[in-house]
Specification:
Blueprint: E1 3-8, E2 12-17, H1 22-33, E3 38-44, E4 53-59, H2 64-81
Antiparallel strand pairs: 1-2, 2-4, 3-4
Length: 85
């Protein structure tokens, strides 16, 4: 995944990646929506044939990068715990 655009302001983060990463973003979105720190989280893809996915995160006060990393760690832990045996 290559980040082609990153806009980070006080409580917002917008990532545009040059690949079809909506599956990863939808997984992380599930975890972010449960977090009290998150105000808005969204994913945008203009067309399924376009290799460009946009991810948007707005937090209430905490750094959006920190919140995103926290959600990724939680998802990774859950996936590891539910590993097929």
């Amino acid at each position: 995944m290559k980040i082609i655009e990153k806009i980070e302001e006080k409580n917002t983060l917008k990532l545009v990646v040059s690949s079809n990463e909506e599956s990863l973003f939808f997984l992380v979105k599930v975890y972010l929506e449960k977090m009290a720190e998150v105000d808005i989280v969204g994913i945008y893809k203009s067309h399924h044939l376009v290799d460009k996915t946009e991810f948007y995160l707005k937090t209430k006060s905490e750094s959006p990068i920190k919140v995103l990393v926290k959600a990724l760690k939680e998802a990774k832990k859950d996936l590891k715990d539910k590993k097929l045996k």
